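Dear support,

We are seeing what looks like truncated structure output for some complexes. This example has two components. We would appreciate it if you could run it in full and send us the complete token output so we can diff it against ours.
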Amino acid sequence: KAGVTQTPRYLIKTRGQQVTLSCSPISGHRSVSWYQQTPGQGLQFLFEYFSETQRNKGNFPGRFSGRQFSNSRSEMNVSTLELGDSALYLCASARDSNFEAFFGQGTRLTVV
Amino acid sequence: ELKVEQNPLFLSMQEGKNYTIYCNYSTTSDRLYWYRQDPGKSLESLFVLLSNGAVKQEGRLMASLDTKARLSTLHITAAVHDLSATYFCAVEANQAGTALIFGKGTTLSVSS
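Here is the complete output from our reference environment:
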């Protein structure tokens, strides 16, 4: 059974640019959530999508957005990149609420 | 706002000895997760604790949950080098969706 797949694994972007990250969940999982991991702030919840609708949102600025497609694949977009956006971005999928979440390998974003 | 606190944040362990990591959370939740993260890697699910009094064991690790005290413990028995990693506990922020709030993590280092 394939796990959660995130692409790309590594990205280097310049301040002010925008970036799109992709996440393919485990087959049959309809919930996809995104997390940002930095040494200073740790693991922080960004948002969760379920059946193409944003169901939960963390405390991040509007530059961070996402969407989910009908096949449950999800994308996350960050506009007007700042140096502080450099982080490991993790995606997790779950069947639904109250089911275990499984994490992908992450996308390492570096903003220069 | 749900807060999750882990302690200690760093733990230098001697092989063969026993240790405990504590995870406190601030609001009611009946579901708590423990994850392991190796350097540069994603999160590996260790335990899902679903109810008060839940206890789960896998190898040298045992996790328990006391929902009344809002406390989970991860007990390590006879530490070995392979257990060196960072361990996170996480609690679901609300019942309608999958939004995990993580502790800061406990970095374990096992030496002989």
